[in-house]
Amino acid sequence: MRIAVTGANGDYGKLLLPRLEADPGVESILVLDTKEPPPISKVEFHRVDLTRYDAEAELTDALTERPVDALFHLAFLFGPILNGPLAHELEVIGTMNVLTAVGRARLPRLVVPSLTVTYGARGNNPALLREGSPLFGCPHSRFVNDKVEVEGQVRAFRERNPDTRTLVLRFAPLLGPSLDNPATRLLSHAVVPTLLGFDPLWQAIHEEDAGRALHLALRAEAAGEFNIVGRGVLPLSGLIRQAGAQPLPLPGPLFRGALRALGVVGASTLPVALLDYMHYSWVADGERAESALGFVPLHHVRDAASALRRSQS
Amino acid sequence: MTKGVLGNDPFQRGAAPRTGEVKDDAAGAKTAKKSAASKGGKGAKPAGKAKSAKGGASKSGSGAQAKAPKASKAAEAKQTSAGPRTPAAKVHKFEARANGRGSAKHEHDAHPAGEEVSPLREPSTPGPADEARPRVLADEVHGSRPRERKVDRALTEAIASDAAEAAAKTAVDGLFEGHDGPEHDIERVLATELVAEVAESAVRQVLDEGNGDASEREVATAVATQVAEATAGVAVDEVMERNASDLEERALPSDEERDPRDLDEDAEAWPTGAWSRDPKDVPPAENSGDVWTADAWRRDPEGMAAPMDPDEDDLVTGVERVEENGVHISVSIIEGAAPTDVEPEVELPDESHDELPPSRRPLSLVSDPGEDPGLEEAGQGEASFDHPEEPAAPSGFAGRAAGMFSLAKEIAGQALASEGLGRAMGAMHGLMEAMRTSLGTGGGSRLDEYGKDAGLVESLQPVLDFLYEQYWRVSVEGVDQVPRGASILVANHSGALPYDGLVMAQALQRERPDLLESRWLVEDQVFHAPMLGTLFNRLGAVRASPENALRLLDEHRPLVVFPEGYQGASKPFAERYRLKRFGRGGFVKLALRTGAPIVPVAIVGAEETSPLLGRLPGGFLGFPSLPLTAPGPLPAKWTIRFGEPITMEGLAPESADDLGEVQRLTERTRESIQGMLQALLRERRSVFTG
């Protein structure tokens, strides 16, 4: 079984590659990236820059030259970056290029990670969001809306290319010692501001579970979207405590203003959009991943948060 | 004697005028003293401590020899002093006495302080002196008997006053000068109290035991006085050690005032440090130890103390008061105590009510605790007192503080052990948790996916129990009609604050433990309200939405819904219990789709629990309006009546799309609830008592 991976140097890639390396069924790993991945015996490196205009041609050439059984499109950001247009190029345009190339190469399997934040934290979310729930995104966040757009592209691709088994894994916020994303940054502070009077339920997934879910997607018979979430839920304050920090409830307007001011200055490590996710819950139902994908999370949210604490100390 | 103790006591005041009268008065005096003693009970302990500290300077007994001659003088002094004593505040009293009479007493003080000088008198020293003294006393007493009438009264009073004054003053002065710091007032008060108590106790015992025998009484009083003086002396000595000059000054006045006789006797005894002369006349109990060693001295005070009632707890030491009859006060000196500290140890072993087991008496290093009981018993005769024990304090102030602390700890422990307080504490804890949760800092790790926090509910259970059982006295009728498995309980919404869902959940949990845990649906306005929504969510409320309802019914839970929605919770008080429109019949559609039966439920009492009196604009907080209601839930009596279930049998799930059918079922449910409500309201006689 030959596999191609984009964005192998990202967090997803770091989680997946060792598993593929250890998987005896995997013959080779074609890495399509701008940077050479860590040297692994099975890896073949092909330099591709998804943000370039000729990315699609490059990808198509690479995939037709060395046909693969599955493509993991992992070249995604985990959080907003200051250069919004670049992020948009990478996520939306990059995905478009990948999808086109995959369609041309008629790959049998495509795996795309996403995030449960695409559901959006809204007051009228049901207690548990199933995969069929509409993706409302976050009106203030370009990052989240890019993700929603990517999902739309992938869904459209899936409908047009039924021969390509397309799996979308919607991950809850990933927590783990080796990760760097808004959630881990948020929890790494000694005092974490929260919204006074609100304590939404948060989910999280341990990085090991996330890697395992990606690996499972390699052979799953199902297609479609899957919520990949850890076991259990925690209120945000509980998550913060588990991570070894202290919640500090602030009145909403004050918090929002401060965060926005910091964001304008560029000094903020926390996206303003995070406020929405501190306001309302967006709890995804991992039942389908368990039944169709065979993914059973091993780590409770608690463990994921406390793993973060251990990594910090 | 009594002076010190009784300084402010009515008895003392009365005593002075009586000087002329003899025995009869004495008897009266006794009783009076007793009462006084009871008052002084608190003081008694400290006094005892002071004595003990001094080393059991224990010569107190010596004073026992009635000093007839002195008596007259003393009496005079007393009378004069009587006025000043009256002041209520002990401190003031003592000072007053000191000023007024101080002279008389000073001599006594002087002896211990000046002559003996030894700060810590060891028990051994007194021994020889004691032996000598007792005889003298005996002789004197016997001799005096014939002239009892004349002397005794005067004697008692005079001696008592003198002793008390002297003791008080000395103690006060000594302590005063010893501690210039802020504590000094306290110290002074304590010392005075100690002395006074000791004297009192001694007097009382003597009087009590020497029934009718004037001489005995007098002797006893004398002894008491002596004791008091001794104590004072001891205290003074300690203080004096610090300031020699002060001692000398005091000594001078004291000598002057003292009667020659007393002086002689005392002089003999005191230098050696054996103050404990036992008057032979004194009843057997006291007399038991003719030879006064330190122990004997100790006993004596105990014996004396016995009669007194410590009715009042010692503020400082927290000693319990004992009945008059069997009080034993043992004074022991603590060796190794800092010289500066006056440590009176009073042991009041209480045979019947002993709080502290004998083994726990840390008290006196010098004195043997074991001896106390026997001695006391001997002295008491018929009287049986309860003596609370006081743990000895290692050092004067610190010791008292420690004693107080330990007592407080014990009380606190017992209180905590009691169920009521435990529950109260649990409730407080639960409320704190709820507060933190609603603020958004509660944490919590036992949440289910709906947001109910089992841990919070557990810790809040005492509060819920109280509300349910005692505050709202919820009575539930017809709960057996709730079918097992999924069911939709449709209830009227009422009250400005939606307690009803919580109470319904509690009622189901209590009355129908066989059912799965129920959940109730709340409207968005409540669910998304800051704090309130968060708290309710943790307590089990679920946002009302078809998805949530379906999921809950799929889990075969009883589902409580309030179809009136926010309207129901926001209707003015005048429209209470009048059902609003039942939404769009969502619950009927649910029932039709899932086949779950509808159980109509009427809740009465919630409207009066939080009547809606008005509304404030609350948009800035996320509410459509802020309800203006009672500051807290009112104690209206709740009644929850479950009606006959409306089954969905014979109705196809597709009929959920039949608006007519839905409307019909909605109306039926509504009428059922309205009917039950009206029946309940008719049956209700009073809002608060049902």
Helix content range of the residues of chain B, please? 55-70%
Largest sheet of chain A: 7 strands, parallel
Q: Give the terminus-to-terminus CA distance of chain B.
A: 65 Å
Shape of chain A: globular
- Oligomeric state of the chains in view: heterodimer
Average predicted confidence as pLDDT of chain B: 63
β-strand amount of chain A: 15-25%
Shape of chain B: elongated
* pLDDT averaged residue by residue of chain A: 90
Descriptive overview:
- The complex is a heterodimer of chains A (313) and B (690).
- The longest helix of chain A has 22 residues, at 84-105.
- In chain A, 41% of the residues lie in helices and 18% in strands.
- Chain A has one domain (2-312): Rossmann fold, CATH 3.40.50.720.
- Chain A has 313 residues and is an alpha/beta fold.
- In chain A, the strands form four sheets. In chain A, strands 3-2-1-4-5-6-11 form a seven-stranded parallel beta sheet, with helices on both faces.
- In chain A, α1 (11-22) packs across α6 and α3 (84-105) packs parallel to α4 (142-160).
- Chain A starts with a strand and ends with a helix.
- Chain A has helices at residues 11-22, 55-65, 84-105, 142-160, 182-188, 207-216, 236-242, 252-265, 274-279, 287-293, 301-312; strands at residues 2-6, 28-33, 43-47, 70-73, 109-115, 165-171, 174-175, 191-195, 201-202, 205-206, 224-228, 234-235, 246-250.
- Chain B has 690 residues and is an alpha/beta fold.
- Chain B has helices at 2-6, 10-18, 23-55, 68-85, 90-116, 126-144, 148-178, 184-209, 214-242, 244-257, 260-272, 284-287, 294-305, 371-380, 396-417, 419-439, 454-471, 500-511, 524-527, 532-539, 546-554, 566-569, 586-594, 606-609, 659-683; strands at residues 58-59, 275-276, 330-331, 346-347, 475-477, 487-491, 519-522, 541-543, 558-561, 598-604, 614-617, 625-628, 639-642.
- Residues 1-144, 179-183 and 243-393 of chain B have low confidence and may be disordered.
- At the A-B interface, β12, α7 and β13 of A face α16, α20 and α21 of B.
- Chain B: InterPro entries: Plipid/glycerol_acylTrfase.
